[in-house]
Amino acid sequence: MVPAQDIDALLPQTQCTRCGYSGCRPYAEALAAGAAEINQCPPGGAATIAALARLLERAPLPLNPVNGAEGPPLVALIDEESCIGCAKCLPPCPVDAILGARKHMHTVLVALCTGCELCVAPCPVDCIRMVPRATLSSAAPEPSASENRARFAAHNERSAARAGARAALLAQRKHDPATPPS
To answer: Which structural domains are found in the chain, ordered by start?
Structure first.
């Protein structure tokens, strides 16, 4: 059996969830367990499918259209004039590539953006669009899979710490209702 770590190393680490899993590592674990097909990663496309087929000694398959279509690397761009600062795009970004705060304009750190598209749907004013990275004259190259993996891990750690702090605060307020809100 091939370890999930070896499979995960072949995935692009966009953390887009289009494979049907919550990120690249859970997809790799499902592949290792034989619970998923090798053709569910649109960002990796045919090259990743071929690499997975070799590693797992499976027949290559065409990309499953249910999971999306292969295309050029994308990046998110925010129309800063239209942005209302709602901050709904911040939590879904798996690598914290969007910079902003509530009631303030947001912007995408293009050098960090994986093109996952997870920020698009939550935007209530449709000010986020996905464009091919190659069309941007000053765009940095795509972040590496290892950089994406590290940023995703850091994002998850920060999210867990915030959730833990919030739960502790709510528990304290429940126990001591006189605690002022922060």
So the answer is: 4-67 (1.10.15), 72-153 (3.30.70.20)
Q: What is the pLDDT of residues 144-178, one digit of tens each?
A: 999 999 999 999 999 999 999 999 999 888 888 66
Q: Which of 123, 40, 59 is closest to 89 using CA atoms?
A: 123
Q: How far apart are CA 15 and CA 12, in angstroms?
A: 8
Inter-residue contact 105 to 86 (CB < 8 Å): no
Q: E-strand spans in 44-169?
A: 74-78, 98-99, 107-108, 128-132
Radius of gyration of the chain (CA): 19
pTM: 0.86
Mind listing the pLDDT tens digit for each residue in 102-138? Answer: 888 889 999 999 999 999 999 999 999 999 999 998 8
